[in-house]
Design a protein that fits this description.
It contains seven helices and three strands. The protein is mainly α and about 160 residues long. Helix 1 crosses helix 4 and helix 4 packs antiparallel against helix 7.
């Protein structure tokens, strides 16, 4: 049941339809039309849950790189997103200082909201004036991969007509 509800709550169509209820109360969770719909949404919910706990193998398939050497310090005034010039590959760059950046970050992932905040931005902002360890660099790339996969799965959930 948890995975079914998790999938339903991550449907953009559902979120739009029940926007007012989501702000003030617990919204109605629709009963599935049939067993096939239920199990398809359970699968999506389980995949989302694994992504959000960073337990899915998908998070280790990095879509980003960290190409520049340096001290790995998230400087004051950073992070900053810079879109990639037209024709220069997918995604933009998220700079943590003047030189160092994560390359290949999709702008939609950079601007992606979960609840009231943007995790791709917030995680780095919470580390301003700190040096990122190697594990931190890997963790951020896992976050980006999880957000990109979440965005894709949310679109697929809406293809399951349940609302």
């Amino acid at each position: 049941m948890l995975d079914y509800i998790y999938a339903v709550l991550h449907s953009p169509v559902y979120r739009e339809r029940y926007r007012a209820f989501l702000k003030i109360d617990f919204p109605r969770v629709p009963y599935p039309a049939d067993a096939d719909t239920f199990w398809r949404l359970v699968a999506y919910g389980g995949a989302l849950r694994a992504l959000h706990l960073l337990e899915s193998p998908v998070v280790d398939d990095f879509i980003t790189t960290y190409p520049a050497d340096g001290d790995n310090r998230v400087e004051k005034g950073y992070p900053r997103f810079s879109p990639s010039p037209a024709g220069e590959g997918r995604g933009g760059a998220v700079f943590i200082n003047e030189v160092q950046h994560f390359a290949g970050v999709p702008e939609s992932v950079w601007n992606f909201y979960i609840g009231g905040y943007q995790p791709a931005q917030k995680w780095l902002k919470d580390r301003r004036e700190r040096v990122l360890a190697f594990d931190d660099l890997l963790h951020y790339q896992r976050i980006v991969a999880a957000l990109a996969a979440t965005e894709r799965l949310m679109g697929e959930i809406d293809e399951v007509k349940f609302v």
